[in-house]
């Protein structure tokens, strides 16, 4: 599929997800799709409930890590959350920046932005805002942010090189990002790569970890550090929706693996 087609898939799917509860979203490996029927597979998301600033209305269970855990956010920082959804990571980040800092959430799905703004209105916070924009072409000025965070979103962006180039542009010199994302080891079967639901479910849009890290480095970033890595196990019942039996067995034998990583990277001074 072409890049614009993939973006429309993501917009439509996450528009649907914005209207659902966290429990509904976690009952599907494909992020809101009905491909998993009524089974409960919380195979991506981490538990936010223990975190200061946690806002249950903003938690749709869509992450694959907790990027703020390693982001090194300080009081007074200006933080940008890419693919901010209903605002989950933005509300957590605000506890770090304090009253004197600022948090901006960027998303290109109207329903998500509306949900985030409703959640924000309930808090009364004046130093969080949510704006509409495409990660590949952000409507933001150069050298604006101290820290960029993102949670299970960059894998959905068709042109990752352009996305990381944009992150480099909007970060201040010496700024850094902390991103939780999905990457691969080995070669993903073509059936999964071509499955629209699995793309929106953060799987078929992922690339090999080595390619992911090289793409980051090629944009000029330094000090690449992986803080956390865990394998994501897609149940056989789900794989069987897309793969013949022999491919399911290959997946179980480790011929390809799906991992979530949380990576920190610095923009050099």
Written description of the protein model:
With 269 residues, the chain is of the alpha/beta class. It has a single domain (3-266), classed as Rossmann fold (3-Layer(aba) Sandwich), CATH 3.40.50. It has helices at residues 3-17, 22-26, 88-97, 110-123, 160-170, 190-193, 196-200, 209-218, 236-239, 245-252, and strands spanning 78-82, 102-107, 128-132, 145-151, 171-186, 222-231, 256-266. Strands 3-2-1-4-5-7-6 form a 7-stranded mixed beta sheet. Strand 1 (78-82), helix 3 (88-97) and strand 2 (102-107) form a beta-alpha-beta unit. Helix 5 (160-170) crosses helix 8. The N and C termini lie far apart (38 Å). 46% of the residues are buried. The model is unreliable at 28-42 (pLDDT under 50).
Give the arrangement of secondary structure elements:
Blueprint: H1 3-17, H2 22-26, E1 78-82, H3 88-97, E2 102-107, H4 110-123, E3 128-132, E4 145-151, H5 160-170, E5 171-186, H6 190-193, H7 196-200, H8 209-218, E6 222-231, H9 236-239, H10 245-252, E7 256-266
Helix pairs in contact: 5-8
């Amino acid at each position: 599929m072409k890049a614009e087609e993939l973006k429309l898939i993501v917009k439509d799917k996450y528009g649907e997800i914005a209207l659902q509860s966290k429990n509904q979203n976690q009952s599907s490996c494909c992020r809101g799709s009905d491909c998993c029927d009524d089974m409960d597979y919380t195979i991506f998301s981490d538990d936010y409930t223990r975190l200061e600033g946690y806002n249950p209305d903003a938690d749709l269970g869509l992450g694959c890590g907790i990027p703020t855990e390693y982001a090194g956010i300080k009081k007074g920082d200006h933080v940008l959350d890419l693919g901010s959804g209903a605002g989950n990571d933005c509300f957590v980040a605000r506890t770090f920046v304090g009253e004197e800092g600022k948090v901006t959430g960027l998303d290109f799905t109207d329903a998500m932005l509306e949900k985030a703004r409703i959640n924000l209105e309930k808090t009364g916070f004046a130093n969080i805002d949510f704006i509409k924009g495409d990660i590949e072409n952000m409507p933001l000025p150069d050298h604006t942010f101290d820290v960029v965070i993102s949670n299970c979103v960059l894998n959905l962006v068709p042109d990752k090189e352009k996305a990381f180039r944009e992150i480099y542009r909007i970060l201040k010199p010496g700024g850094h990002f902390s991103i939780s994302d999905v990457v691969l080891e080995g070669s993903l079967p073509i059936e999964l790569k071509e499955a629209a639901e699995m793309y929106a479910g953060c799987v078929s849009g992922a690339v090999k970890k080595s390619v992911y890290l090289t793409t980051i480095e090629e944009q000029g970033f330094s000090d690449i550090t992986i803080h956390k890595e865990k394998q994501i196990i897609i149940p056989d019942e789900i794989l069987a929706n897309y793969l013949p039996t022999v491919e399911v067995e290959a997946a179980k034998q480790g011929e390809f693996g799906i991992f979530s990583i949380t990576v920190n990277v610095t923009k050099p001074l």
